[in-house]
Design brief:
Chain lengths: ~120, ~170
């Protein structure tokens, strides 16, 4: 079976980095599904964004540099940088929303937030 | 040598992420999050992304993780040892996450285009190379993201503090 063959010659190439990224992403996904606390959900989203950054830089390192114009060779780094900036914006606004909601409801439990249900 | 460093810090990052989503104490979750970000920063160094590693340590470990800790301390109620509970459908979440991981792993392991071994890297990755790209090819997104960051921070202050209505 080809899958087991691939496991045996796994070295620190692109595959290992992508698998680390996938593990971090799926742990973040689990946290988003399973946690009650809003701040825990926000932390899980940060984990997922971080996993995507690993993928961007791994592809940039292993594939992008082989046959491309030298001026575009760090495009993956730029994309990862933009993701980091957007994550910083997201966590700032998210935490402000959490504090604002907490002030009104005295809770951070997402199961209790059902204003929009009728 | 590189292999050992990779596995040590990859396991550190993944184990800390596991701690983030399984810890019952949300303060421990936040500190595991900082540890996971630091492990990922070392992986960036292994991939010759020195500048990104520094940015990761400064913004994620130094900024975001500390801001999360502050938000936890501002909103904590009740017993801290049970401050991060699971909801009723965590089993479904676990099943979906495991299936998702198996699917991604299957794609990654069977795609022969992605079975690339490390080649010597000569194209930089330092701040000067990235700034050249940011100020020429990606100038418009760079300025746009600066405006986005300013607006998000002002919006965060307005949301958290509230505004007084002027007469």
């Amino acid at each position: 079976m080809s899958l087991l063959n691939n496991f045996s010659n796994l070295s620190v190439g692109l595959t290992s980095y992508l698998l680390v990224g996938a593990m971090l992403f799926c742990l973040g996904l689990y946290g988003v599904f399973a946690k009650k606390n809003m701040i825990a959900i926000l932390m899980s989203i940060e984990l997922m964004l971080n996993a995507v950054n690993i993928n961007f830089i791994a592809f940039n390192r292993f594939i992008w540099n082989q046959k491309v114009d030298i001026h575009y060779v760090l495009t993956g780094h730029v994309a990862a940088l933009f993701i980091i900036i957007v994550a910083a914006c997201e966590v700032a606004v998210g935490l402000a929303l959490i504090i604002s909601v907490y002030r009104n409801r005295k809770s951070t439990n997402v199961d209790e937030f059902n204003w929009l249900k009728w | 040598m590189g292999t050992v460093v990779f596995f040590v810090f990859a396991i550190l990052a993944v184990a800390s992420a596991w701690g983030v989503v399984t810890s019952k104490n949300i303060m421990h979750s936040a500190l595991y999050l900082a540890l996971s970000f630091s492990g990922v920063a070392v992986l960036y160094v292994l991939m010759n992304a020195d500048y990104l590693a520094a940015v990761q340590l400064l913004i994620y470990t130094g900024g975001i993780a500390i801001m999360v800790v502050f938000a936890i301390m501002l909103t904590l109620r009740g017993e801290i040892s049970d401050s991060n509970p699971e909801n009723g459908v965590w089993g479904w979440g676990a099943i979906i996450s495991v299936l998702m991981f198996l699917m991604i792993a299957l794609v990654v392991l069977t795609n022969t285009d992605w079975r690339v071994l490390p080649t010597p890297w000569t194209s930089g990755g330092s701040a000067s190379d990235i700034s050249l790209l940011l100020l020429t090819k990606f100038m418009i997104p760079f300025e746009a993201v600066a405006i986005l960051l300013t607006m998000a921070l002002v919006g965060a202050v307005v949301l958290a503090k509230g505004v007084k209505v002027s007469k």
